[in-house]
Specification:
Radius of gyration: 22 Å
Structural class: alpha+beta
CATH architecture: Alpha-Beta Complex
Number of helices: 5
Order of helices and strands: HEEEHEEHEEHEHEEEEE
Largest sheet: 5 strands, antiparallel
Shape: globular
CATH topology: paralog of FGE (formylglycine-generating enzyme)
Strand order of the largest sheet: 1-2-5-13-8
Number of strands: 13
Helix content: 10-25%
Number of domains: 1
Length: 357
């Protein structure tokens, strides 16, 4: 009998020890990993654990967004897309997310290795770009918008009138292009034996994106740092007191009352630690719109992946460098025209998680 007891105790010890080892191997909040794109180019991802958050915005937040400080256009349906009230959402699985949007240099590695041609570069393709001859809205006489569909432009040349840098977020890429990048990275990392079992690189699900944007806050705040716009100085790139290239004019309409240093795109993670939220995510508000895996539902976001079979319109989140402060909040969501639509205000961020679609 004593020998049997010893064996039972020994077996129990082995089970406990193996369990402890397994738990020690589990990623923890803030852990990072690098995806090697070759040629000295890497992509950093940060681990975000399972959790809960409040999706959407309150009537008070919508009123601020369309008020004098938020500057968003009142009287439209845009804020209704956030839902009538914040609602509890659960993210049951931990996932890894790119600390920044995919950069020009990272996207270039993808096209160099695969020969991929983006939707904007295909025959008959076009992308929405800034017209440098634009000199204002002229709201009293005629409405002239600064963005126009342009053939011959793409992520290689978004018509910014200044050279693109490798550390700028890539723009003029569609939902299709973002998914193609993720498929390439999944295969590349799997072939190299670096892809964890049961995971793939993909675009973030909408709940994952807003959960990551809020940085662990369980309250329904306007921005990831809180409700006060002035606390955002030095944290994000939106319409602010910055001259447009070769002009002595800023973007018109509502803007942040400081200079963020860039009238168009800023380099990814330009604001460093101050520009990172509680999860370590950079540039979640402002910068460029980020295309999401889900299809758009104008009634609000869903806890589960939302997919439609007719006329899909991918969701984009986060606002952009041209946006007024009220359009760069955590809850803001829009639907793109189609999976092939691209714009010089739109980019994407990747996620490493369980397969979704």
């Amino acid at each position: 009998m004593p020998s049997v007891s010893v064996r039972v105790i020994a077996v129990g010890c082995v089970v406990v020890c193996l369990t402890q080892i397994a738990r020690a191997d589990q990623p923890k909040q803030g852990d990072t990993r690098q995806a090697d794109l070759s040629g000295g180019v890497t992509l950093e991802l940060v681990y975000i654990p399972p959790g809960e958050f409040m999706m959407g915005s309150t009537p008070e937040e919508k009123a601020w967004a369309t008020g004098i400080e938020g500057g968003a256009q009142p009287g439209t349906d845009r804020e209704s897309y956030e839902g009538e009230q914040p609602r509890l959402m659960r993210v049951p699985h931990g996932f890894w997310m790119g600390r920044t949007e995919v950069s020009v240099g990272q996207f270039r590695r993808f096209t160099e290795e695969t020969g991929y041609v983006t939707d904007a570069e295909k025959p008959g393709g076009k992308t929405q770009c800034f017209n440098p001859d634009w000199d204002g809205y002229h709201l009293a006489t005629q409405v002239v918008h600064p963005w126009e569909p342009m053939p011959g432009k793409s992520w290689r040349d978004p018509n910014f009138d200044f050279p693109m840098q490798d550390d700028f977020p890539v723009v003029c890429v569609s939902w299709n292009d973002g998914r193609a990048f993720c498929s390439w990275l999944t295969k590349r990392e799997r072939d190299a034996g670096r892809l964890p079992d049961g995971l793939e690189y993909r675009l973030p699900q909408e709940t994952e994106w807003e959960y990551a944007c809020r940085g662990g806050s369980k309250e329904s705040q306007y921005f990831w740092w809180g409700n006060e716009l002035h606390d955002g100085e030095g944290r994000l790139n939106i319409s602010a007191i910055d001259f447009l290239p070769d002009r002595k004019q800023t973007w018109p309409l509502g803007k942040a009352p400081w200079s963020d240093g860039y009238s168009f795109v800023s380099p990814v993670d330009h604001y460093g630690e101050q520009g990172r939220n509680g999860f370590g995510m950079a540039d979640m508000c402002g910068g460029v719109w980020e295309v999401i895996l889900d299809d758009f539902d104008p009634k609000g976001g869903h806890e589960e992946l939302y997919v439609v079979t007719e006329n899909p319109r991918p969701v984009c989140r986060g606002g952009n460098y041209f946006d007024v402060p009220g359009n760069a909040r955590c809850a803001v969501r829009l639907g793109l025209q189609s999976p092939s639509y691209s714009d010089s205000r739109d980019g994407f961020r990747i996620c490493l998680g369980v397969p979704r679609r």
